[in-house]
Amino acid sequence: xxxxRLALWAGPECTVNRVGDEYIDQLECTGxxxxxxxxxxxxxxxxxxxxxxLLWERTAPGALEEADWSWPDERxxxxxxxxxxxxxxxxxxxxxxxxxxxxxxxxxxxLAAYAAAVAQRYPWVDAYTPVNEPLTTARFAGLxxxxxxxxxxxxxxxxxxxxxxxxxxxxxxxxxxxxPAAQLVQTDDLGFTSSTGPLxxxxxxxxxxxxxxxxxxxxxxxxxxxxxRYLRANGATAAELQALVDRPxxxxxxxxxxxxxxxxxxxxxxxxxxxxxxxxxxxxxxxDTEAARVCGTPIGGFAARLREAHERYRCALAITEVHMxxxxxxxxxxxxxxxxxxxTVRAEGVDLRGLTVWAAFGACDWDSLLTRRQGHYEPGLWxxxxxxxxxxxxxxxxxxxxxxxxxxxxxxxxxxxxxxxVRLVYPVHGEAEHKPVQGRPLLITxxxxxxxxxxxxxxxxxxxxxxxxxxxxxxxxxxxxxxxALARWQPxxxxxxxxxxxxxxxxxxxxxxxxxxxxPAVLAAECAxxxxxxxxxxxxxxxxxxxxxxxxxxxxxxxxNAYGRAKLAGERDALARWPQALVVRTAAFFxxxxxxxxxxxxxxxxxxxxxxxxxxxxxxxPTYVPDLxxxxxxxxxxxxxxxxxxxxxGAVSWAEFACRAAEAAGMRTAGVRPEPAAALRQRAPRPSxxxxxSARGQLMPTLDAALERxxxxxxxxx
Length: 718
Hints:
By secondary structure, the protein is of the alpha/beta class. It contains 22 helices and 30 strands. The strands form nine sheets. It has an eight-stranded parallel beta barrel with strand order 1-4-5-6-7-9-13-14, surrounded by seven helices.
């Protein structure tokens, strides 16, 4: 009899954590809180279970009798109608409502009272995670001081952990009084720590501690447990520990979470690392960094963690979070690796019930570990920056896995960054092992241009095989040349960055039509014949400046100059010949790898005490080249098509742009000299307003954020 295939589960990132007096609610940040049809989106993946956030702070922020059940009522009913079973979570990296916290002696009983109310209202729910990742939360809130109640000592850590574990036990007792068959699906991060020789004792402690939440629930923390003395020395009473031994609450399913950043390396050689990684204990100072960045042997990942958990507990397991905040192809590779690992250990006899695609609608501000509200968004299976959540290539991969279908994306041919040589940024510990970049390439035209070189640089970083083509290797306006290049390199996609860029000269130079209009049309026709994806670029200068709000993709194009007319003809002809093509309109490049752009030249003038002359009556949307390339590559990997606007979020005159760049660089703006465009002797007429917005999704960071990163790179290069 054939064993059932691995079940796909899913869940939205749902942390509601508190920093000081402020709560950061991921369900609000990603919009999941307001979209009932997200339940249908998740069900469309073919999932069997959903980790459902019925969170204490959201449902009953005050007195329990005043709880508002309308939100979970509607969504759980929809899940039930769709045939998707929930795993209900009550607390997710949180500290509860304002009337309690993780150090409150009454916290366990209060959580249990909420759990009882949930079970009574939804007696049919058969699986619960009362507290997500109790050990991880105790570390962040009780040991590191990052989350409320901001403890920074072992006693706070121990109490926060025991309160969460005791709360889980009492919650499950309350739930099982209503539904005796209810299962406990207990999650935690099981990242492994390795170290240099002198710090082996600390690595052993960390690797023992990571099991502590599970060990307590399984009733394993007896007097012989390696951490019994540590717990007792830091406030745990013998009676409360013994109570967990006498009346354990073993999980029915142990949920394994693991991230690249979970795997740590401790190094006593501080000189190898920047000061921000320095830390230590009472015995040694050491650096604590991601193991992937220094260890020669790649991280063990899910396969290693699952085998460890199976060996330790011999119970049913699940992978309860698979997510990576990274570029799209790396997200695909991480999910692929997790799925492969899961099926490998299942074949070895591990009882693995499901794999959970996590952060389905993305996550916000995890780059600061939720300590600052900055609006930093990481897409997931859907990208919520569009008017409606937009399914990404990651979502399509999840859907194929859920349906048991094969999924073939060229980006999956290469290994993830955690397996490539690029991962190693510090002196290597041990013999370096890495996998090569391989697979069908991207072809990139425009070898001598700023944008072409930027794409090649980013493809190198992202592990995307590529060829950066010179004109003699492929003439974009010659069908035979294009067909020959496609036949030779067999690419999965072609990125066209070639073109005539001198706007004023284009007024009198007929060559610009060949490069800007005919070239994209030829490329599209040949790519259509070969079934190759195409990304080509257009300009804000297709617009005539006849409106005062940023132009969106659907707005009428009325170019004022020859360059704009050619660009418009190029994008229209390209889409007519290959409707699957992706056309990106953008504007006003600046970047760290080009000394000839507006900002680089202007800052150089200010350094020489020369005036920086800029038009004050032409409004544009400046575009930071690294942001543009990253966003465009993500769209290409997603298989997006049609016209997209990609520019940093912000509409400024050239003079205002110059002032903001000068301020970001710490220079006086007095050197910026605003002039009317008429005084700049521009041969080609320009629109007075050509700022770009997007009706399809604002994927680019703000202009101020881009300028900060530009200045950082500019200073680093002297």
